[in-house]
Protein: Transcript variant X1
Organism: Nothobranchius furzeri
Amino acid sequence: MGSFQGHALPGCFFYVAGIWWTGKYSLWHATRRNRSLGSTRFASRASQRRLEIIESSVILFFSFVGMLAEQFVADGPRLHLYDFEEKHWKYLHNWQHATMYLFFGLAAAVSLITHSTEAAPPALDRLMLGIAFFNEGFLFLYHLHGRSMLDVHVHQLLLYAVFGQALIAFLEVFHRGNIILELLRCTLTLLQGSWFWEIGFVLYPPSGPAWDLKDHSNMMFITMCYSWHLAFALLVAGVLYCTVSCVVRSRLKRTPPVEMGLLKTRERDAESEDEI
Amino acid sequence: MGSFQGHALPGCFFYVAGIWWTGKYSLWHATRRNRSLGSTRFASRASQRRLEIIESSVILFFSFVGMLAEQFVADGPRLHLYDFEEKHWKYLHNWQHATMYLFFGLAAAVSLITHSTEAAPPALDRLMLGIAFFNEGFLFLYHLHGRSMLDVHVHQLLLYAVFGQALIAFLEVFHRGNIILELLRCTLTLLQGSWFWEIGFVLYPPSGPAWDLKDHSNMMFITMCYSWHLAFALLVAGVLYCTVSCVVRSRLKRTPPVEMGLLKTRERDAESEDEI
Amino acid sequence: MGSFQGHALPGCFFYVAGIWWTGKYSLWHATRRNRSLGSTRFASRASQRRLEIIESSVILFFSFVGMLAEQFVADGPRLHLYDFEEKHWKYLHNWQHATMYLFFGLAAAVSLITHSTEAAPPALDRLMLGIAFFNEGFLFLYHLHGRSMLDVHVHQLLLYAVFGQALIAFLEVFHRGNIILELLRCTLTLLQGSWFWEIGFVLYPPSGPAWDLKDHSNMMFITMCYSWHLAFALLVAGVLYCTVSCVVRSRLKRTPPVEMGLLKTRERDAESEDEI
Amino acid sequence: MGSFQGHALPGCFFYVAGIWWTGKYSLWHATRRNRSLGSTRFASRASQRRLEIIESSVILFFSFVGMLAEQFVADGPRLHLYDFEEKHWKYLHNWQHATMYLFFGLAAAVSLITHSTEAAPPALDRLMLGIAFFNEGFLFLYHLHGRSMLDVHVHQLLLYAVFGQALIAFLEVFHRGNIILELLRCTLTLLQGSWFWEIGFVLYPPSGPAWDLKDHSNMMFITMCYSWHLAFALLVAGVLYCTVSCVVRSRLKRTPPVEMGLLKTRERDAESEDEI
């Protein structure tokens, strides 16, 4: 992928995913907290389920497209992996990226099954998401041999976010619905997204001179830069969370839940049962 | 053990163990979920106990056979360890493998005691299993000195699965019966099994030319290969789990639990008490 | 900051923070334990809240002052970071320190919002504190390249305290109000404070000859010294905890809660509800 | 301490402590399980407390003696640490060992306070024990610079047991009274004890030729040896646990609790309340 676009594209995907997840979890948390005001209008159990199914389908679709793109792009492997004439492996980078997409696709497929049927235990979607992130970090970890110092360093910093996401997704298996963990994972997703852009700018600057990849002061600046990205991700997640909370509360106060009559009692009971 | 067979054999054992455990835990989970349909016919508390005892006995037997085989195989140590004439240790590999079997044997013995008597706390079987896997990983970790790069790498990758199993078995001490952890452990057992085969094929190719153990692109391919093995193990565990779940549910629906009359009430009470 | 004062100043801040926190948590713990004696006079729910708000405001203020001071001190960067003429980064240390203050400021701001409104989940303040400490440790970790052995070693020892605080603050997200964790975090804050002083004395001795930064016996002494600082921090935290506990109990016994009549029943009910 | 006796002595202490703890926790666990048979005769709440106080006093006494011995032994430092004439640190090893004893003494003192008064939270004794073990491991970790390969290796293996004990003591803060964790900690204490003896035999063989400290096959043998020590420690702990359990049960069955009349009801109620 050695190009600016090759880093900007996953950066966009992760950033959009981070914003989407922050909004989703903030909405659901606000819904849970304001149940007494009839907040289930915004996010009933059934609509949550529908949303999860749509989200999983979209991720599954993009993973599939990503795998195909890695294989059949202009100078791609087209399912070749070994060059029998020169006796060495070819296109290893494309295959590695396709493998990463494969795991995100697997996670999305499991999430789809979990939310559309009753067959699988619900925590399985988080476990698979954790495994997908772990696999991404695992492949990046052994991806760095023989590169220059700064190149290795920016990718190592990325691993903090990636393994952090894996760890928190694994913790969510045991603490499902904990808003603190969910927001932390969203923040790390945003961090990963913006850091991919940063890697693109540092290694393949679209304008201006190339960076000196062996200068130690560059490395120190990049480390500090990572902290700034983290602070910015925290800010974005925080602002989004507050906005969603305020909007939900103000809308609930404006329109009292008059339409929720006795007819819906049965549905609401089902909701509260699910919550346990 | 430096041979293809020497790696294929433990690979088979772990693969069979992985499939067996996946089936067992899937069946028990399906049983717990469908209690209202009388699913305890398939796996009553007593039959679960009997199954555990049989399983532990089998593992104990094979551990014992393995230890004997390592000692009394054609060019084995026959309980010799130190060569007093040349003043150095001999047969260290055989003794190390025997030590690994010893710990799995210990784990099986403890599991046997735990499930056949009331003396030991029930979580002890998982602790001992965790210690057995930890010991396996520990011995492999200090096993690699002075080998070539790829040889070290394939064994290091194995350690992810081995220490992962140890960690999850330790977590199960506190979260016993959590199907997510059980399936994850099964998946890692399957991964370990298939990876032993892969090690055999890479280091001692039964046909074709030997691999270049110092080529970096080989190392990158092997890393990716590990991800594929993990994906395959996830797939196998997932398919097995779904199959068992479906079979249990379809059989329960076909034959309603008519035979469970009042006479069995007492037994069912005992079951539900145990569950707490 | 390469100066004695530059290490003594943060040392003072952390030491004061450690003593303050130890006192605060000890008082609240004593209050919770002696509720039956009417201890809520000392630390009612409302006064706890007010205290937290004041504390957060003070930290926020000092973080802001610290950031300004790092920028506009005599030979500071004044918001410059890159020297376009000589094409390298300048003032990286000042910017790194300002970044550390930024995260503590963020944590204080979040704590302020958490305790003054109902918008944010209460555990968020600990998460942000954990992230602030993690960020401090993270920047120190990549701060040490190319320094002499003893310099690296004293900063590495500091990281034990810093990452320890981050870890414990993260554990407090799940175990809020656990006095053991709170006291342990206070102890590590005290340790960090006194160790900053030690670093100042070792690297920039205000009197006497400079230390030999390459002598191995110095390194061994420093390691042992760290243990002594830890023991001293444990002692200080322990003595403070005991003193506060005794004072609270003796005052409660001297003045029985006669003034707590029926009028206050409603307030006390609110207290006990909050406690859940 | 560079001598056989210097390693055999702590080995004895830890081994005795391991056996003592295994017996104590096994007895208390058996007592808790057989409450219905009147087992509180063997270990009532008050007698448990008394036992803890005696144990803490003994540890405190030996820590104090150890610290004095390290200082005032024939060629000891007598509270000197710095040689002002030759300008270097002296007797660092003695001071390091004294520091280790200091932390075990602190842990014992805290345990004494915890069990003899109501002032401190009960989990504090485990935290301090964990810190004492952590400190021991921490000092050993930076103790090894410049030694020969096998010397470093045997001490590194010791760290597995030491840090393992620290970790499990820390887990016990949250899972107090979990027999699995208690037995695991006892096992690691036994392992540490017997491994100290092994270190003595390897580095300072009392008879026979010295070991070749640079031979790699020696290192592999020692690694395997550590596994055997672990297996032996597991066996000792297991046999002790079973013996104590059997003795308690057989004694309870022989002498039914006839003497426990109505007069003691009140005491038993207090017991069961404590248990919560």
Q: What stands out?
A: Chain C touches chain D at residues 29, 160, 175, 179-180, 184, 215-221, 223-224, 226-228, 230-231, 234, 238, 241-242, 245-246 (CB under 8 Å).
